[in-house]
Structure formats: C-alpha cells, structure tokens
Amino acid sequence: MIAIRKLAVILTYAIGCCGMLPLLPWLSTFPRLALACGILSGLWQERRGIWQLKPWMQNVAIVPVFFYYALQFSRSNPAEPVVSVLTIMLAVRLSGEKTVRYCLQIYALSMFCLASSSLFDLSPVFLIYLGLLLFMVALALVLLTFHDQNPAMAVTKADLKRIVFSGILMPLLAVPLLLLFFPIMPRTQLPLWNFLMPPVTRTSGYSDTVQPGSQSSITESRALVFRAEMIRQLQPQLYWRGTVFNRTDGNKWTRTSQIPAELMQFTGRSVMQTIYQEPSVHRTLFALDRPAALTQHRMSQSPDGVFELWRLSGKRVSYAAESQMNGVIQQRNAINRKFYLQLPDHIPDRIQALARKSMLSGEDDRTKVALLEKYFRNGNYLYSTKELATGDRALELFLFDKKQGHCEFFASSFALLLRIAGVPCRLVGGYLGGDFNQIGGYYFVTEDNAHVWVEAYINGSGWVRIDPSGFAANAGEVWTNNRPRNFMLQASMAFDSFNHAWNRLVIAYDFEQQMNVAGRVSSQIQKINPSIILRSLLPYTVGTLLIAGILLLVKRSLIFRPREQRILQSFLQTVERTFCISTGEGSVGLFELSAEADNMYVSDFVTIYAGAVYHDRRLTDDEYLRLQHILRDLKGIIPKKS
Fold first, then answer.
1. Is residue 33 part of a domain?
2. pLDDT tens digits, residue range 249-260?
3. Are residues 173 and 255 in the same domain?
4. DSSP states of 66-92
5. Burial letters for 32-70: b for 16+ Cβ neighbours within 10 Å, e otherwise?
6. Would you say 425 and 418 are in contact if contact means Cβ atoms under 8 Å apart?
7. Is residue 496 part of a domain?
8. Which domain holds residue 612?
9. Is the pLDDT of residue 175 over 70?
10. pTM here?
11. Do the Cβ atoms of 121 and 190 come closer than 8 Å?
C-alpha cells in the first residue's frame, strides 16, 4: 500500500523545483539561497515530523522582504524585484507543513515563477517545463482530493495507476483546444520583457566601426547571430555581407550615409537563403555576399549593397535573400573614384614608402592589387587575436614590427595601401563561415565568425572581393574547421534544430501570419458551394443511416441495456473467470452463487444488487458506484486454477 500524502508531498517539491529552475539564471544570490534553504528546511522537518516553522512565522517573514523589494521597484528595474519576491514566497511555503491549502499555494506560486521566466527567455526549454508542470499539477490535484477525504488513505499499485492515468488524462484533453487557439490567439516574440523596456541584447563580434588597435586581445564568443536555411555550400564561399565602411580617419574606418549612386549588374549563379536573425543592437540585415534582393518589409537598401531595418525591433527577424556568390559585382556606371580614394590626414612615412615600393611597378589597378597580395603572402604575417598592437600607431606596428593581428589589421592596412597607390577600395563587415546543421538543413553563424574584408574596384571587372586575412602564413590552420563529428556535436545539432523549429513555427508566428492564415481560410470558405457538398455527401449519408438502422434493429437490446444489466453481466463474467463457477443463464441464482464462491466481495455485491433489483426498483447512483468499486476489487483477485 502507498500513502497518498507521501505522494502528494513528493509531487509538491517536484512542482516547486519545476517552476523555479527556468528562472534561476536570472535571479540574484539572495533569492537563490532562500529557495535552497526553504527546500532543505521543508525536507528536514518532513523527515522529523515536527513543524517548527508555524504559518504565522512564515507570514511575518515575508512582510519585510516584500517592503525591501518594493523599494527597489522602478521603471528601469521593474522585473527583478517582482520575480525575487515570488521566489522567496515560494521558498517560505516550501519550508512549511504541506497542508492541502499550502500545497495549492505552492502550485500557484510555481506557475507564476515559471511564467515570470518568460519575461527573460521563451526557448523550447520553457515549453518542456510548462508541460511537466501541467501534468504534475493535474496529478497532484487528484491526489489532494483523496487526501482531503481521508488524510491517512493508502492505495494499492493498481489504484495508483488509475489515479496517475486520470491525472495525465486531464492535460491531454486540453491539447485539442491548444491546437484550436494557437492560430488565432495573439502572441509576441521573445522575450516578453521587450514590452516593458528596451531589449537588453548582446554586442556581437560585428561592429559599426573598424578600429584596429583599440584592444590588445579578443575573446571569442559562440553566441548565435543568425541561422540561414539554404543548400550546403563550399566553406570558402560563405561570406555573409553586413555593412560597408567607406571612410577612414587614422586607424578608424566608418560608414558615411553620403554614398555615391551605383548601378549594380548581377550575373552568374544565384543562391536563395531564408535568414532567421537573432535580436541585435544593430539594424543591419545579413545575407550571402553579395545580396541582390531581400524580402523584408520596413527596410532600406543602399547603393553599395547594404540592407538595414528602419528601426530596431528588439525581436527575431526573418527574411528571404537572393545572392550572387562569385565575389565580383560589375557596375553599369562609373564609380566616384575620389570618394573611394579618400585618405586620413596623417599617414606614417613607413606606410607611404611601403605603398610606393610594393606597387611602384604596377601599370594598372589589377597589377597593383596582385603586387600587394604578393607582399602580404611573402611577409610572414600571422593571424592572431592575442598580443595585438594598440594605439594610434597600431597599423604601422602591425605591418613592420609585430606582423600579427586579426582580420581588422589585415583588411585596414591592405585597404589603406591600396588607396595610397590609387586603387579605389572599401571595407566590408560581416561574417565568414558557419556550422552546417545537417538535421535542420541550415547554417549556424555565431559571434566568433565576425569578419572584415576588402572590396577593390578593378576597371573592366567591377568590385572584387579580396580577403587579406587569407594571405597570412597560418591562414590554413585558422580557417579550417576541424571540429570532430562526435556524439556530443550531433546531440547539440539535434537540440539546436529543435530550437530553430520552435522559434520558426511558434515564436515567429506573429499577427501578420495570423492574418494570412485567416485570409486563406476566408478565401477557401468563399469557394465552398453548399449544394455541391450536400449532393456529394448524400450517398455516404444514406449508407451510414442504413447501417445504423440495421445495427439498432439487431443489437438494440445490447446497445440500450440498463446499467443494472450491464454491471450484472460484468459481475457474472468476473466470478466465472476468478472462481471457475459456471454462471450460464438460469444455471445458478445470485445467492447460490454467493454461497458457492464464499467470498466477501461477491457477498457484498449480491446483497446490494438484490436489495434493489429484487424489490422492483432501479439502482441508486450511490449503490451503482459501490458496485463498481466491488467489481474493481474482484477483478484484482488472482483467478483460481481449474
């Protein structure tokens, strides 16, 4: 036998933990400690059976906590005080005795805590916790109902299975309603916190400026930037274009909005992508270099192939992109050479001398680019994110002394030397590479893929992509993806594929999509012709009614049998199977059957049943329920061997 109260207490602690776990990463130290102390205190008192923390003590303890966090509440910090108070209230309730009333309070607080976690994050993990919480609460409510009737009640394993089944069945019955309301109920992108204050988002490796020498080292991050659904490509072609830096001032490259008009001419193979971009502090939209078109509303397009949102939305952005990937974009008009040859006010003498020396023999722009590339390849330069040159002389130190740096050093110095030599050029910022998820069929691009390269204008060709970082002596080691295809990587890809599907199908399902669904449904309804449908269904309707009529005539006595007959038939079958007694019609009476079986359950059933039916009256609801319980107990008896 299993005690109902013990099961209810175990479920109560499990529900409390399930509601709190998604919120833990966003809590400060004190609420976390309070929660741990509350759980440990409750378990310790539960084991001893002595509850030293009385309800009035718990209520008094909550009051100063409430006032403390109420004073911290402000427009700039409204969420943390609220979730902290909820956490501490839950901890206090978990530390006390688990009466029916306090258990219900714990269930409610757990749901509030889980809902509060959606203020910060609404990932697929939230759905898992929500499902677990709903199933456990439904089961706990069933157990508490029995516990409220009899606190000392204990059940058999068979009864426990029925209770568990009943508890699980209730949430499952709500699934059809969820599927019904999902397309029509309003929703928001994650996190919900965006409605209350500007989104707090990460600053990725991508930046609005390029300034080598601003830091001595770079720490890489694997935070997600965007996913791109597309056919798998060769890794060297994965340049994701973001913005263009067209003006230089010392070591710093920036973008000016006064961009000369360009008429691009796209030729060659095009690649289609569907981009799912994470929330960002930048308005830039990314696509394979070079994008010809993006299907995104509320955006602007610049002549140099830069696409930007009109304003920051603070949510995920999805769009389709078409790109030409051959690395060369032809122009149908002449470019403004003066604009793309602008130089900083002061250029170190050694850099000017290097530009004249390395490209002096170049007769045209193409030859000058080739000579500079040869210099970088033979210069023993190393790609590195550590021990970088810093200060105003960073580029000079990189070119002549340290000879190591990351993509900003290579691209900035290469572009500066080109401009000194009279070759129009600019920097392009974006991302390079990405991991291909074979399960989901998309590329996973992270912050550590941030990259900068050069576009040089060559007469007769147009804008040509040049990646000076590839000229480094150790470029092969840096850009080769040698990640082992082990089980952990496969599991990570599977989970991310699920995460992507969740974001795409659930989180990104917004009001615009709802209107599209409603429009499609409305158009389909308008096409419906009721008369045609009725004529097509008429043969099936007639056939169904005919079969139903035959069944009613043949099986009427079985279909409409009173419940007295149904339960008697089930009783006789159970007695015959359990006690090996023949109960054929007319072979033995109920009282003779009871005497022959010599069983308490059989005797009780016969007494109740005969007391009603043999006195020409129907079974009452209470009698019928008692007979069902007796019949259930009879079915649990091990049958005798014949």
1. yes
2. 888 999 998 888
3. no
4. HHHHHHH--SSS-HHHHHHHHHHHHHH
5. bebbeebbebbeebbeeeeeebeeeebeebeeebeeebe
6. yes
7. no
8. 563-635
9. no
10. 0.57
11. yes
